[in-house]
Amino acid sequence: MHEQATNARPEWAYLTADLPGIPAAIKRRYEDFVVDEIPAYGPSGQGDHVYFRIEKAGLATMRAVQDIARALNVKAHDIGLAGLKDARAVTRQTLSLEHVDPQRIAGLAIPRIKILSIDRHTNKLRIGHLRGNRFIIKLRDVELGRADTIRKAIERLARLGVPNYFGSQRFGLRGDTWQIGRAFLRSDFTEVVALVAGRPGRADAGPVLRARELFDAGQYDEAAEAWPWGFRDAVRVCRIMARTSGNAKRAALSIDRKMIQFYVSAYQSKLFNDVVSTRIDTIDTVLDGDLAWKHDNGAVFRVEDAAVEAPRAARFEISPTGPLFGPRMTRPTGVPAEVEDHVLREAGTSVEELAGARMVKYSGGRRPMRFKPEDAGVDAGVDDAGPFIELQFTLASGCYATSVLREICKAHLSEGLSEEA
User: Fold this and answer.
1) 350-385, pLDDT tens digit by residue?
2) Where in the chain is the domain with CATH 3.30.2350.20?
3) Pick the catalytic residue: 86, 176, 188, 204?
4) Topology of 41-128 in CATH?
5) Could you confirm whether 67 is annotated as catalytic?
């Protein structure tokens, strides 16, 4: 019996489960969520590439890049960047462009974009050329008296680490992307098309709800017409189901290959989160047989003697890793292997099934179970928008502020702004 999309989103354990969740809101205005990119290296002052630091408000990074490219009459892909930043925020980051007069950049006047500084370097910025990000986040609609509870949570997270869960964006609005990925790995194409184009759930409304209902009724052409703009894969699935008298395999394999990879990655992510949740009480501890992550260089090694490695884990030099199951993933031994096997049994799958999938190319790997927030602080105050509790912390590249907020607010966090295109 297939699981329903309405119950697809799992719940994972909190490291701060004994502390009450703090009801709060973020992003009531852009200035409430400030992200300052920390580059991996500074510009040398010489070279053909102009490095320019920008501050943007209410714009996604790629929208800002497109606006700058249009103003300079260059191609957007000629502009280098180290990372993508939230649209619903004030963010500062460095971009690069080769063979351009710095004065042209200094003279840019683009709404919601400021040029903060200009320099030169010898290479184009690439994704990943950053050390981390500094966050300053104001929580609104919050009781100022809860600041002490937030400080306790932050202190624990700084000491033990933040659970490195994949966030809700990985699992989609309906929370079912992992189910689609599982269906692909099992070559269950009927399930794939049902989840992509049918099986309405609580998150569906308006034209989307209508399109899914029509698909479930077998009215594939009508469903294709009902889907709103942007749902290209769902429309394609409906069209092919109509044209082939319901050939689910052909319809499923018509989905964009990058989206199929994303779905499979979501299933890997869900299983990783399950393992972290199961080991939440030992997230700061390495066990015999663990595959440990070295935070200074990302190397992974097998723990032969946990007692010997315990001081390094306590100093946050190393952390246990969880699985991104796939054909090339290295397996732990001992208790860590037993935990991973238990999670797979609960999920109704096995290492062999995941490694033997042929429909999708994917490899697998290891991912640290925790990350450390640096230079963390908590302040309370009042400004022209009212009272707030402000959080400050720095995270390494690839770590998410939402994971920190999840531990503080639990399920009581709301967002106040809608993203700009």
Assistant:
1) 888 787 666 677 788 999 999 999 999 999 999 999
2) 41-128
3) 86
4) Pseudouridine synthase (3.30.2350)
5) no
